[in-house]
Specification:
Blueprint: H1 2-19, E1 28-35, H2 44-61, E2 73-80, E3 89-97, E4 100-108
Length: about 110
């Protein structure tokens, strides 16, 4: 549980500055692309569900959306891409709303 909490705090610290430029939104769709470290097997939904929870919480904390419930985060999806062969797992988030779309990238060690 402590490791999860520390990861979430670190994630928030890294992501909030990347979201400050985003306008306030009411309804969003999130599309996650996961880039694993290696060509080995990966349970994409394990990674996607954690990143989705952390990222949705950051969107609320940064004031981008009022809440991360189903009335505001109306759709999400995740898929695996080719490995990028670095030391860290990476992900890209495509955020879409009626205000337009934005892409946020991050590389995290998990």
């Amino acid at each position: 549980h402590y490791k999860h909490s520390a990861l979430k705090k670190n994630f928030h610290k890294l992501m909030v500055p990347k979201l400050k430029h985003l306008p306030k939104m009411d309804k969003i769709s999130l599309h996650y692309q996961v880039f694993p470290k290696t060509r080995g097997r990966l349970d994409t939904m394990n990674v996607g569900s954690i990143v989705d929870k952390f990222f949705s919480d950051v969107l609320v904390e940064a004031g981008v959306i009022p809440d991360d419930d189903y009335t505001h985060a109306v759709f999400n999806s995740s898929r695996k891409h080719c490995p990028h062969m670095s030391k860290n797992l990476a992900f890209r988030v495509q955020l879409e709303s009626n205000c337009g779309s934005s892409t946020i990238r991050s590389s995290q060690k998990y």
